[in-house]
Amino acid sequence: MKTKIVAFFALFIITISANAQIDRSQPPVAGPEPEISIDKPKEFELKNGLKVLVVENHKLPKVTYSLRIDNKPIATGNKAGVESLLGSMLGNGTTSISKDKFNEEVDFLGANLNFGFSGGFASSLTKYSERILELLSDAAINPLLTEEEFNKEKDKLLEGLKADEKSSDAIASRVGSALSYGTKHPYGEYITEETINNVSFGDAVAFYETYFNPNNAYLVIIGDVEYKDVKKQVKKYFNDWTKSVDVNSAVPQPNPNVQYTQINFIDVPDATQSNLSITNNVKFKMNDEDYHAALITNNILGGGGEGYLFKNLREDKGYTYGAYSSLGNDRYGASRFNATAKVRNEVTDSAVVEALKEIKRIRTEPVDAQLLEDAKQKYIGNFVMALERPQTIANYALNIKLNDLPEDFYTTYLQKIKDVTVEDITRVANKYFKADNLRIIVVGNGAEVLENLEKTEIPIKYFDKYANPSQKPKFEVKLPEGVNVSSVLNKYFDAIGGKDKIEALNSILLKYEASIQGSAVISEEKRMSGKLAQTLYMNGNPMMAILATQETATINKNPLPPGMANDMKQLGGLVTELNLLNSETAKITGIEKIEGKEAYKVQFPGEVVSLTFFYDVESGLKVKEIQTTSMQGQTQSQETFLKDYKEYDGIKFPGTREGSQMGQLVVFKLLEAKLNEGITDADFN
Questions:
Q1: Model pLDDT for residues 358-381, shown as the tens digit of each residue
Q2: How are strands ordered across the β-sheet holding 62-69?
């Protein structure tokens, strides 16, 4: 403590001394205007069409290689996903080096090397750079494409699709692109289980042979190299890459914008928050005259924490964790303006209204001059800082070539940003933000949000999770006579052993075990009347401890915020349902199929933590749990499936608890269940 006090006073004295030397009545003198001087990369081209850009930078003994196959956007139709399958196979060995030896050598050299269907990237220390370039070229020209590897990658892709089936983010992305561009457009088509199963190994090989060639390829080399030396190396390793026949497929036009502003609603019954996307198509290219003004306009609307959308929906209303906008550019004339946010179900309609208000505001009200100046300075600062990175120089040179930009595009960049006026902002906003032709895509829980969305009087059209037109979902819950929350919970008590028998217990101890990325994880639950202590161990070490009693709720001994603490207290007790039995807010919101069997969906709202439990209609057993936490505009949900109930002294407990953690399936198996032993009151201190 004494040391901290001394340090505080030392800092205080230094601050006073510094302030004494500054005349606060005068603003600081601005520094000199940054001068933009961009060195052009050295270039050459091989006979097969490969174009090479070299940026020498000798500050660090490191070299990076970026290979870009610059094909036009490709639609693969009923075989959508073939490009992803090919990309996942590339970079894993060559016809002369096995997959294991290839990857082992890259690791041994401390290098990075990876591929996708549109190119590859590699980096290494200078002393290994020629070998990495050789491996990059060998993997590009002579890839090891085997049917065995193809089938493995196909299975992985199919598993990924299953994991995304109920993901609101995945649904919003897929439907947003499909509705905006059309499912036959390269930017609008999507991968399904059906299209993946249509792809054969031969299709993947044919795709490589057709599209992965040097005709339209660029190799960007940055780092500690000598131009003459690296030119010889590139010729040595890439000269044998055979030029193919050019594929001159036309890029189709995207869907036209909607004729009138409308809500396109996609019902996801389990969604705990709504995914909003307010969008319209634009034809916006980097070589447009108003490119720089458009950048600043989008920044003011939703480019970050200073934007209209963020300040309204996050800072003022607290509807969301963040609200942003983007204005894409595309040299083929297919891009979008998009304003996005994830909001709580109960404020979905309000968030839509407020976002539309901010879009109208930037179109109709002159932007504040200081706000405009701040936006400019932000862009200028980012631009100048980016020039410190050698990659920037190469990217700028490539942009000039690919986007038909004037040679002085970047040397005049800052001046064009500075020249943007208040009038430019209004003009550009009206050009690209189509107030009367906005598609408002809402992916959410219709039972909870549609009634209020209808009150906005914005026309609503309905679509399924694959952008197909559909009918308005029906939310009437028709329950058998006599079925209510109380009857469902009492049937659950009977199914696991009986309410009287549970209440007669003194304590319950449960231990579950799972393996996560090779680590042994133990979940230990200790329960007594009105109390819960849950500890998570990884490889024997305690990682997280949750305590919930009638008096307190903590995580790792730190008190939880009051609202969350009150909600967490209901999780305590011998069985959570004993606390929920007399809940005045609980309700049955539907009957849903869980792994093929019907289950009652019972919701228990909370201020911060809400619970949704699913009970098998036939057996009464709880088969699924969803715990949803909503704080500071952000919502997170955790789903757990309960299976294989096992009986211990007449009481049943789930033998398996399955859930997803960061996209990975985690399965907890019941190790032991102890009744009336192994727990004392001291465990809840």
A1: 999 999 999 999 999 999 998 888
A2: 42-45, 51-56, 217-223, 62-69, 119-125, 112-116
